[in-house]
Amino acid sequence: MQRSSRRGVGILAGIVMLAAVAPAYAETYGMERRGDRRNDRAAGRSAKQACKAGDEKSRVECRQEKRTTKHGGGANTANPAPAPNPPQ
Q1: Integer Rg of the chain from CA
Q2: Which DSSP string corresponds to 16-39?
Q3: What is residue 81's DSSP assignment?
């Protein structure tokens, strides 16, 4: 009788351990790039709002400032090379 109860406890402990590990996952390159794009959009929005709050710049100048903030302000950064695939 004790063997079957020990076996049941062992199986139950294994199920609980698997259930705790299952939700964890690694962040992929795609998820990192998505996060970067979201951060860039947020930075652009806040730059435009800050520009509009001050009355010294025109609407066009604020739009250009947002665009510069969002795209990093560098020359020819339109299509960077994709990240390499991780080894399998």
Answers
A1: 26
A2: HHHHHHTT--PPPHHHHHHHHHHH
A3: P
Residue 66 has pLDDT above 60, yes or no: yes
Element counts in the chain: helices (H) and strands (E): 3, 0
Is pLDDT of 83 > 70? no
**Which are the contacts of 57, defined by CB distance < 8 A and separation ≥ 6?**
51, 65
Alpha-carbon span 81 to 67, nearest angstrom: 21
Torsional sign, CA 6, 9, 14, 15: positive
CA–CA distance, 67 with 11 (Å, rounded to integer): 57
59, 73 contact by CB (below 8 A):
no
In this predicted structure, the answer to whether residue 6 has a pLDDT above a threshold of 80 is no
Structure tokens at 17: 């351990």
Residue with tokens 């001050």: 54
